[in-house]
């Protein structure tokens, strides 16, 4: 297994929740409803967004990722899309009410030689993180908080594509 796939797998493991279950992406040809990815910022009890389909992820990030595997349900949801030739894409939603909790997530993405940068114009707070493997392959992460919703996207897509997708998912 290449180092880049191991690094991507480690990021996915770190982002995934404690409970695991999987679902196939049987509706990949149907785009998510208009409300997918949107949540209210005024309520801690707001439902988490549903995972985008593999087809949507492919359209937004530019890579042909595999079937969707979902973990978590109530407070957090991680949507993993695995493709052996391009690694893993991961979209993580979590109910997170405070700036301090967001800053802890951001701090966690600065370890292991990652370069972290604050972003403006995306939610209430946002950052990007880049992990470059020894082979020179970048794994990019966008983290954003809007109201009580944390969104973290990790993939090999460009930061610009991840940021644009994050903006759509945050609504």
TrEMBL record:
Residues 1-23 form the signal peptide. This is DUF3558 domain-containing protein. It comes from Rhizocola hellebori. Residues 20-29, 37-46 have a biased composition (Polar residues). Transmembrane segments: none annotated. Residues 19-51 are annotated as: Disordered. Keywords: Signal.
């Amino acid at each position: 297994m290449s180092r880049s796939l191991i690094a991507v797998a480690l990021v996915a493991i770190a982002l995934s929740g404690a409970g695991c279950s999987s679902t196939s992406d049987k509706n990949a040809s149907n785009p998510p409803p208009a409300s997918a990815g949107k949540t209210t910022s005024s309520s801690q009890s707001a439902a988490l967004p549903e995972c985008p389909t593999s087809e949507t992820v492919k359209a937004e990030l530019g890579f042909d990722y595999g079937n969707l595997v979902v973990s978590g349900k109530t407070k957090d949801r991680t949507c993993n899309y695995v493709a052996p030739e391009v690694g893993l894409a991961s979209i993580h939603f979590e109910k997170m009410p405070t700036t301090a909790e967001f800053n802890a997530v951001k701090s966690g993405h600065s370890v292991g030689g990652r370069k972290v940068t604050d972003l403006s114009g995306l939610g209430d707070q946002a950052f990007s993180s880049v992990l470059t493997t020894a082979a020179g392959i970048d794994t990019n992460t966008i983290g954003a908080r809007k109201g009580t919703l944390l969104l973290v996207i990790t993939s090999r897509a460009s930061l610009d594509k991840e940021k644009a997708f994050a903006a759509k998912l945050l609504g």
